[in-house]
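Handout for the seminar on molecular recognition.
Each group receives one record of this type.
Step one: identify the two inputs.
Step two: read the structure output and locate the region that could contact nicotinamide-adenine-dinucleotide.
Step three: write two sentences on what you found, then compare them with the reference statements printed after the record.
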Amino acid sequence: MLLKDRVAVVTGGAGFNGLGFATARMLAAQGARVVILDLASSNPAAAAAELGPQHLGLVADVTNQEQCEAAARATLERYGRIDILFNNAGITQARKTLDISASDYDAVLDVSLRGTLLMSQAVLPAMQQQQGGSIICTSSVSAQRGGGILGGPHYSAAKAGVLGLTRAMAREFGPQGIRVNAITPGLIATDIIKGKLTEDRKDAIAQDIPLARLGRADDIAGAVVFLASDLSSYCTGITLDVNGGMLIH
Ligand SMILES: NC(=O)c1ccc[n+]([C@@H]2O[C@H](COP(=O)([O-])OP(=O)(O)OC[C@H]3O[C@@H](n4cnc5c(N)ncnc54)[C@H](O)[C@@H]3O)[C@@H](O)[C@H]2O)c1
């Protein structure tokens, strides 16, 4: 097992069809004890229970600093360490530039970008004490190509911000043995796209992807397990594209 006895925190991990839960499941299968954080409405305790009694589910809104810190404290109380943070929580909105309101901007930027900063700040002191850790941040192909398929420009901006934050944290914390990397998923079939694309549209998109299909949640989970584990021990500040070749650059 790649992650025996490691402790992993996954934000936005409670949705059974989402990238966070698929990753939590694969982290657990590789021996990690997993702490699933999510909004109360998504029931993180039930998601953790699905993985087994050695895992923990906590309510934490990543846009709220106190809740992020409380989640890190509860993780340390239960397991004594934090080895892995998967900053996965994110929301999207289909908007054109001229239609983005101030509250749209706040909502989208707060979850992806502020949330990534706040949760990283919450776990970094423990990782510094341990002189090691791996943080994986979720950007998007949308940041790289100037718009994905569903998210508006504010979503692209949030996810581009995640790349800058990831690289800067990688540089700052590398000397302490803490690696920080980003993944850039392409179009992955989860609830985030549910009901937003017709089957015909999905087929048309798949035809333009070299691997000829949309992504699956486990495609992302595998990439995150790689970045979380010692298999990637000399990788920091990287952007790992997981997009089936949708964007080759
Ligand atoms: N699915 C895709 O095609 C795709 C592509 C590129 C990037 N991404 C990114 O991957 C991540 C996961 O996406 P997904 O497709 O699994 O989405 P999803 O909507 O299925 O899951 C997102 C999860 O985040 C949680 N969440 C939302 N706001 C939160 C908050 N404030 N605090 C804590 N949790 C919160 C939700 O409750 C949900 O469980 C997101 O950051 C998304 O932007 C997804």
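Reference statements: The chain has one domain: 7-242. The radius of gyration is 17 Å.
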